[in-house]
Design brief:
The chain is an alpha/beta fold and 127 residues long. It has 2 domains: 52 residues, Signal recognition particle alu RNA binding heterodimer, srp9/1; 58 residues, 2,3-Dihydroxybiphenyl 1,2-Dioxygenase, domain 1 (Roll). 18% of the residues lie in helices and 39% in strands. The chain contains 2 helices and 8 strands. Strands 1-4-3-2 form a 4-stranded mixed sheet. InterPro entries: Glyas_Bleomycin-R_OHBP_Dase, Glyoxalase_6.
Length: 127
């Protein structure tokens, strides 16, 4: 048996029509800082050690019709609605809620100011 991997998530890469503006949205939402902004590229630092950063670059092609991946962000139980409202206040669009599909998670799907989907999820306490 091989030893466990030391791979960690360093950054999520996103193509954007306006990299700096989209980086500013995500920095406000996640609590990071726009730490780099240069010639069509912007970098948002991780909020805390071990967290993930985000890297934005100028879009090179038209946006695909279907988004293959998206971020699932987790918040403490009972705070999802307030976090969705905060995200909408920052410029996100609330798309839909999934509250009864499975018993271990409830989530809301949103899109950022450029239409990239992401979810804000909460897991009920165990015990």
């Amino acid at each position: 048996m091989s030893p466990p991997s030391a791979i960690t998530l360093g950054a999520v890469n996103v193509e954007a029509d306006a990299p700096h503006a989209l980086a500013a949205f995500w920095a406000q939402l996640l609590g990071g800082t726009v730490a780099g902004d240069h010639a069509g590229f912007a970098y948002v630092s991780a909020r805390e050690p071990g967290g993930f950063a985000m890297f934005f670059r100028l879009r090179s092609d038209a946006r695909p019709d279907r988004q293959g991946q998206h971020l699932d962000l987790t918040v403490p139980w009972g705070t999802r609605v307030a976090e969705v409202d905060r995200a909408v206040g920052l410029g996100a669009t609330h798309r839909w809620d999934v509250l009864e599909e499975v018993p271990w998670v409830q989530w809301s799907t949103l899109s950022d100011p450029e239409g990239n989907l992401f979810c804000i999820a909460e897991h009920p306490p165990t015990g």
